[in-house]
């Protein structure tokens, strides 16, 4: 019997390419050596990391500087990003500084006065263009660790004013940051397409570890994906990969360059990724501009000959440091099971989908799905619940935008209908998605197809002192 060998190896080439010079220049946002703890476009749940994170030497209170001439266009204090500033620059870009520890005077005094006047810690002010002008290198704030921050750092977003796109700020600061380390891959994933392809005789996705030796056979239409990270000189952090290119038998079939995205594209990360893997094919409803297919199959590959197909991944960072990984998929003719589904439960990505079952209605608008989806629908009775439990899919399927779900209330356990809400059920855990009661149903907007039930909230909030012996200054409470 002929053996088919899959070989994945790092070619070990680290190559540096000259990058196109940017006509716009910025000065550094900090007056300390610049190193990154996070880069643009890193994979996050439901979104891309929208900027870059500068290290601040494990401390707060570093001077934060304007990077060009312009003016403070917005001042905010929020729970998510802490103290933050929007600065609109005269060169056509706006920078957002997040997780600051404080602002410089007179902004600091104005914000404090506003907080006392409104009796609110949160702030959202839009000054006039002449109120707080800034020039390149001028201090505007201090670095911090406020909001949902995992450690002291400065997060910087860069927005192109003419388009509203989020841009990778690194090209504008690359001359201040050294990097000669290439990205590294950790594994490959093969995606047989439903009803069109198989891998090792199976319809299931298959992970191939690096340096695997052994037969991996496929037939029909497949896609591939790669789990990989970038690394930089002088740090132990890992980052998102700037560029991924896939070649099959020497021909380029797919490329991604993580350099910009619009707010409307942000949730498309759910279509591009599968867990920690970046797919190298594009779902039909995914219009993310940073992804480009160079064949007629949106980056998918058809294995229809009994021979070896030679795959090559090329990974690059912005500086051009490059790593290459080769592997072989061996074509082996084998049965491809048909795609079995009930027409009623097949949702189309390019049309409105309407599902009505006893006690439940779901409307999925056109363009909310990225590809056709066979819904794994089930109904479960629960004597302790006020409604049936509805499984819209056996796994949570993220949607590009919200859709409306209505679930009927079987038992009115309380008369106050504002206490009813729809909850996402994951195991025994319930997570509220909100909703309103109307004519015996609770209606809510959902952002994923999972398992849902109507729940009722009759438990009042509790205010509990938190570490009272460590209080300094104003009293602090934990509200839960």
UniProtKB/TrEMBL annotation:
The keyword Phosphoprotein does not apply. GO terms for molecular function: metalloendopeptidase activity. It comes from the Bacteria. The keyword Signal applies. Keywords: Signal. Residues 1-18 form the signal peptide. InterPro entries: Cell_wall_metabolism_enzyme, Dup_hybrid_motif. Gene3D superfamilies: Glucose Permease (Domain IIA). This is Uncharacterized protein.
């Amino acid at each position: 019997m002929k053996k088919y060998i899959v070989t994945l190896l790092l070619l070990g080439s680290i190559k540096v390419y000259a990058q196109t010079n940017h006509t716009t220049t910025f000065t550094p946002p900090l007056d300390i050596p610049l190193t990154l703890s996070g880069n643009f476009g890193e994979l996050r749940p439901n979104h891309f990391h929208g900027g870059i994170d500068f290290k601040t030497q494990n401390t707060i209170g570093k001077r934060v500087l304007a990077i060009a001439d312009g003016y403070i266009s917005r001042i905010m204090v929020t729970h998510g990003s802490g103290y933050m500033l929007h600065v609109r620059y005269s060169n056509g870009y706006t920078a957002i500084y997040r997780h600051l520890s404080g602002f410089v005077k007179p902004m600091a005094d104005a914000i404090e006065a506003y907080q006392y006047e409104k009796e609110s810690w949160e702030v959202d002010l839009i000054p006039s263009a002449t109120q707080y002008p800034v020039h390149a290198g001028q201090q505007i704030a201090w670095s911090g660790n406020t909001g949902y921050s995992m450690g002291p750092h400065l997060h910087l977003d860069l927005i192109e004013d003419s388009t509203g796109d989020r841009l990778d700020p690194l090209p504008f600061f690359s001359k201040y940051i050294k990097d000669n380390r290439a990205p590294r891959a950790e594994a490959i994933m093969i995606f047989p397409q439903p009803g069109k392809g198989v891998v090792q005789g199976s319809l299931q996705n298959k992970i191939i570890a690096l340096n695997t030796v052994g037969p991996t056979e496929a037939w029909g239409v497949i896609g591939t994906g790669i789990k990989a990270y970038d690394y930089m000189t002088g740090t132990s952090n890992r980052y998102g990969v700037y560029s991924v290119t896939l070649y099959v038998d020497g021909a380029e079939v797919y490329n991604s360059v993580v350099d910009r995205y619009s707010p409307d594209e942000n949730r498309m990360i759910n279509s591009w990724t599968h867990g920690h893997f970046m797919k190298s094919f594009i779902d039909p409803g995914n219009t993310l501009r940073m992804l480009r297919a160079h064949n007629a199959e949106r980056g998918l590959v058809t294995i229809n000959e009994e021979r070896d197909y030679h795959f090559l991944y090329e990974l690059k960072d912005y500086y051009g440091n490059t790593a290459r990984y080769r592997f072989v998929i061996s074509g082996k003719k084998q049965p491809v099971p048909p795609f079995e589904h009930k027409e009623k439960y097949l949702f189309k990505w390019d049309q409105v989908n309407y599902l009505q079952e006893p006690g439940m209605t779901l409307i999925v608008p056109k363009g909310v799905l990225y590809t056709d989806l066979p819904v794994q629908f089930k109904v479960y009775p629960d004597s302790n619940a006020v409604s049936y439990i509805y499984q819209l899919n056996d796994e949570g399927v993220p949607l590009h935008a919200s859709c409306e779900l209505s679930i009927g209330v079987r038992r009115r356990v309380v008369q106050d209908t504002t206490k009813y809400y729809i909850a996402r059920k994951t195991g025994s855990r319930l997570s509220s998605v909100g909703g309103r009661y109307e004519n015996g149903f609770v209606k809510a907007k959902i952002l994923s197809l999972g398992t849902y039930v109507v729940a009722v909230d009759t438990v009042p909030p509790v205010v509990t002192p938190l570490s009272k012996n460590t209080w300094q200054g104003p009293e602090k409470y934990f509200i839960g």
